[in-house]
Amino acid sequence: MPFFKRSLAGPGYIILNAIRVGNIITLILVIAASAVMLVKTFVVSKFFFFDGVTHVITAFISIFLIITELPLFRNYVANNWPLLAPSSGFVTLGFTMIVVGVCILGNLNKQATSEESLGTHYWSIVIASGILSLIFGVINLFASYIFRSRKLGLTARMVRSHGAVAQQKALSYSSSSASRRRSFHLGRHDSLPLYNSNARNSEPKRNISAPLAGVSINQPDLAHHPAMTGGRI
After folding, report:
1. Which DSSP string corresponds to 216-230?
2. How large is the average pLDDT for residues 2-17?
3. Which residues are CB-contacts of 37 (< 8 A; sequence separation ≥ 6)?
4. How far is Cα 100 from Cα 58, in angstroms, rounded to an integer?
């Protein structure tokens, strides 16, 4: 990214970690808002099942994003969720938070989650979580492109984790990733033998004569065989 400079790595460490704290607080508010709307949906709505499933899924997505924002299960996330791994930026996180914010605010049009049904305090939690989720989703998108360097193989997550030494960490990470890819790569020449029909056709043909016809074979004389003479010749 042309906007990235070496001098941004140090301040980027502070800025991105401040954004991380905002992400976690916002996602906790989303979980609380989903729980409030889930309870009110069971009480008010007659068709509560699918609305309830939507709120549960939103809450689980928020819990999972909180786990990815914390230094927990890094190897699992890197191996199974590469778009949320250190080698990726915050694009997936930002888009997911935007979608979650839209879903939260979209529920305010329903009777079960209206201001009259929820009350002012709970309704404030719901609308605040939706707005903050949208805001921090956009912030994560911008931060992902500002604090990265495609030329250096540097992502915003690396800057957030390592700060000014992120460039050296990026080099070591790229080398380790390349070695893992080579170790699991099965080349054509070192895995299975190739089948080549031309190779079979190019083999020299053996000159095998046809069976003899009209030739009589006489039985050998067994009179002088050791078995018949008792070993005397």
Report:
1. --PPPP-TT-HHHHT
2. 70
3. 51, 55, 107, 112, 113, 118, 126
4. 7
Q: Coil, strand or helix: which one is 31?
A: helix
| Closest by Cα among 96, 103, 93, 95 to 126 | 103
In the DSSP assignment, the letter for residue 72 is S
What is the DSSP code (8-state) at residue 213? -
pLDDT of 82 higher than 80: yes
Provide mean pLDDT across the span 143-160: 83
Half-sphere exposure of 46 (CA within 13 A, CB side): 0
* Cβ-contact 150, 167 below 8 angstroms: no
In whole angstroms, how far apart are CA 202 and each of 51, 188, 192, 207? Answer: 70, 22, 21, 15
SS3 labels along 104-157: HHHHHHCCCCCHHHHCHHHHHHHHHHHHHHHHHHHHHHHHHHHCCECCCCECHH
Q: Which of 118, 115, 132 is nearest to 29 (CA)?
A: 132
Torsion of CA 161, 166, 168, 169, to 10 degrees: 30
| Per-residue model confidence (pLDDT) at position 69 | 92
How many CB atoms within 10 Å of residue 134?
19
